[in-house]
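Lecture 7 notes: from sequence to structure.
We start with the chain below.
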Amino acid sequence: MSRLFKELAHRNTPIGELSLRRRRELTLDMDVYEIKLGEEFLMSSLFTVSEVALADLGLADLEGGKLDVVVGGLGLGYTADAVLKHDKVDSLIVIDFLEAVIDWHKEKLLPLSSRLLADPRCRFLLGDFFRLATSEQGYDPLNPGRRFDAILVDIDHSPKFLLAPENAAFYTQGGLTKLTAHLKPGGVFGLWSNDLPDEAFTEILKTSFARAKSTAVTFHNPLQNKDFTQTVYLART
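Predicted C-alpha cells for the same chain:
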C-alpha cells in the first residue's frame, strides 16, 4: 500500500501554479492521481468514464483502418490511452499547452505514462490547441495542412466554463468552422464537457458541421452515493 498522500511534482506555468499529487482513497482501496491549478482541481483519476467515452464514441462510427487522430488535452492520459486501444488508429497527436504535464508523463510519474510513451503511434506536442485550430499549419508541424479523421478535445470544463476567457472564440460558429478545415471529409469532432447536455451548443455545432449530437455519460460516485452526468458532443463534417 502506498503512502496516504504525496506531492509528486509542482511547477509554475503561464496559467498559475500546477501541482501533481497522489493520495490513497481508503474507502475505495485505490491510489488517486490529481492535478491542481492553485486550489482548483483540474483533473483526477478517480472517475474517468466520460474521458474514455470521448474516445470510444468519437471513433465508433469511423470505418476503415489507418485513422489519424488528434487529442486536445493530454491531462492524465485517459482519452489518449482509450484512442490507442482501437486497432484502427494509425497515428495519434496529443496536444497540451502545459509543458509540465508533458514532462510529468515523460518522467513516467502517472499510471498511463509508460504505455503512452511506448506506443509508436503516439506523439506529444507542446502547443495551444485553440490557436492551432485557427492556423493554416494545423496540428502537425511536421506536415503542415494535414487533415485528420477525428479531433477529440478535453481542455475546458465545458463550452461555458473555460480555463481561459480567450478560449471562448473556439466555441462559436466561426471558431468551429475553422476547425473543420483540419478534418477529412466525414471526419469527427468530439468534445468533453463536465456539464449536462446543452441544446444551445449542439445547435451551434450544427451550423458548422453536417450533423451533431450530444450524448449524456452517467456514472456512479460511491463516495457520495449518487450519479453524475457529463457530456460528450459529437459532430461530423
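Points to note: Helices lie at 49-60, 78-84, 99-106, 113-118, 129-133, 173-180, 199-208. The chain has a mean pLDDT of 95.
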